Amino acid sequence: MKFKQMAFLGMASLATVLSGCSDTKVSGIEPKTMTDALFSVMEADRTVYTKLIIGRLAKKEKVIKASEHWKDEKALVLPAQMFRYGAERVAEKGADFSYSLLSLWPVNAQNKPKTDVEKEGLKFIADNPGQNFYSEEKLGDTNYFTAIYPDIGVAGACISCHNNHKDTPRTDFKLGDVMGGVVIRIPVKG
Amino acid sequence: MNRKNATWILWSIFTVLILIYFIYKIGSNDQKIFSPGEMTHGHHQIEMACSVCHTDSFGGGEILQSACVECHGAELKAVDDSHPKSKFTNPRNASRVKELDARVCVTCHTEHKSEITGEMGVTLPEDFCFKCHQDVAEDRSSHKGMAFTTCANSGCHNYHDNSALYEDFLEKHIGEKEVLSEAKNQKKSTVEQLTLMSRYPVKQYPLIKLTQKDRDSSFGSDNDNSVSYEWEMTAHAEAGVNCSACHQQKSVSGEITWIEKPTEQSCKSCHSEEVKGFLDGKHGMRIKAGLTPMTPAMAKQPMRPISHNKELSCVSCHSSHKFDVKHAAVEACLSCHDDSHSKAYKQSPHFGTWHKEVTGQSDPDTGVSCASCHMPRVMKEIDEHKLVLSEHNQNLNLRPNEKMIREVCMNCHGLGFSIDALADKNLIKNNFNGRPSVHVESIDMVEDRLKKRKKPEGEGL
């Protein structure tokens, strides 16, 4: 029942993505279909923000700065922060799925892979550009369908910021590189 | 009657008496008998208002959690809580939650456990950071060998509010002077700015200076000329705020009644932010909880015996009709507070600056009063307007005291000096009469790291 509710909510919120599937039975949606749909929205929003806001205003036009300390600096929120704040809001609302932005080379060490599936999945998407990784794992008392999608450096701003950040463990990112991964989890019955 | 029957009758009478006693206690103001243990210094005032936290007789932890969030949630949001609940509801942190369930406040702040309650109301052993950050030295070689009991030392890390302690902030303020050349408090917003607030009754009380002949207190019993004179000298008369603004109340049916002694309910029609702060802090939290007002006799800190029975309200510091903010900023505090920090104030360099300001020997806003630090002028966003108002919750920047660094100390002092001063308990005791005798190495560590790494090509983007 829990999964049915989640699937229904997911369907409603992603109507644009799934508009061609109006006859899909709510109970029939697969976790993979769901996470793929979620990721397509996340990836699109993330790219739009990175290119149209950060790339255009901060990098090209230079009318405003983007900073990790955006509140103190009165600057734009960095794309990774934008993504995380969204994930936090989703969590605060009690949604039945969660997502994170992780990397094998994170600026913040807390965002390196922790679970076995995260470790395996992030390595897989880095070694196999263009491919996603799907698995199941038990965390706490709950089983999850876990999908990991590549997070690509789509703009010069991503590359220069990460390569130059004082906490980065990697300084040779290039445009189009897999810089990390989006991990989406949906609870499933064991 | 045999012995068995007599025993039953006695037992029944005893049981009924006990029941009556508990029923009486439930309805009375003194419910201490139901308290499972002494409360923390933060909540002891509202011990008799059980329902502030235990909002429902039925329900478990979620009831308590929403009560915590109700009072403290906005404060945590405002400082970008470093450990929000959402961090721990993420399944990838399930193993950490098993170690330390930081999704709920009571894991670290259990009430009624005075025997294990430490600073900031924390009821965990001091080294709790270890549970999640045991590998910190792998990323920060400077942290090698540090004990996990020292993480929260002043000037290092706080669990919730790190707005003055994050690495880039420390880096930005490396090498600052002990006293800055532009040492000044923020200038408070003017009355004209205050009228921008949608709730300010500017139509009823336009900004026209009033004199005694303009007073509209014909309802009042007190026609004492000294009251009129005191009012005429205030910012209230200056800004067109007549007697009726505080003393009149309009009922739903439109009937106007005269209030002999206005409460904070009257004040909040124009000073809502200040009243909110007052009710959130230790001066007004009893009123907010529906209890009798706080008196210094109830305080856990030393208070002057002469003031023990004084009931705290807006006018207990601002004194009705005079509304002398300079009095409220120092003398009002010292009329009650009798701890060593308060008693040492008048021998401190801070008082020297205040004395100069109030005697006209220095510029406005350059003096440091009690209120400068404990009810600081802070920027608030109201109705999309940015206004500088006094924060009337005097506890807000004391939990922990590093919260003072940005909004108070750094108005006049460099960051390094401020961190050291706030870490020196003796210096706090003598009201900063001298120099810090302790040194917190956080800025040194940042500077050291900065030297070691290659300078980045540009900041941010």
Description:
The complex is a heterodimer of chains A (190) and B (461). Chain A contains six helices and four strands. By secondary structure, chain A is an alpha+beta fold. A four-stranded antiparallel sheet of chain A has the order 1-4-3-2, with helices on both faces. In chain A, α2 packs across α4. Chain B folds into three domains: 62-151, no CATH class; 175-190 and 270-455, no CATH class; 201-263, no CATH class. Chain B has 24 helices and four strands. In chain B, the strands form two sheets. In chain B, strands 1-2 form a two-stranded antiparallel sheet. In chain B, strands 3-4 form a two-stranded antiparallel sheet. In chain B, a hairpin with a 5-residue loop joins β1 and β2 (256-258). Classes of the chains: A alpha+beta (190), B mainly alpha (461). The A-B interface holds A 54, 58-59, 65-69, 71-73, 75, 78, 87-88, 91-92, 98, 100, 109, 114-115, 118, 139-140, 142, 144, 157, 160-161, 164-166, 183, 185, 187 and B 80, 84-87, 89-92, 94-95, 97-98, 138-139, 166, 168-169, 449, 453, 456-461.
Biggest interface reads:
A-B, 36 and 26 residues
Count of extended strands of chain A: 4
Low-confidence runs of chain B (pLDDT<50, min 5 residues)?
456-461
Judged by helices, strands and strand pairing, the structural class of chain A is alpha+beta
Radius of gyration of chain B: 26 Å
User: How would you state the average pLDDT of chain B, rounded?
Assistant: 89
SS-based class of chain B: mainly alpha
Question: Which runs of chain A of at least 5 residues are low in confidence (pLDDT < 50)?
Answer: 8-12, 14-25
Descriptive keywords:
heterodimer, A: 190 residues, alpha+beta, 6 helices, globular, B: 461 residues, mainly alpha, 24 helices, 4 strands, 36% helix
Q: What's a concise summary of this model?
A:
The complex is a heterodimer of chains A (190) and B (461). Chain A has 190 residues and is an alpha+beta fold.
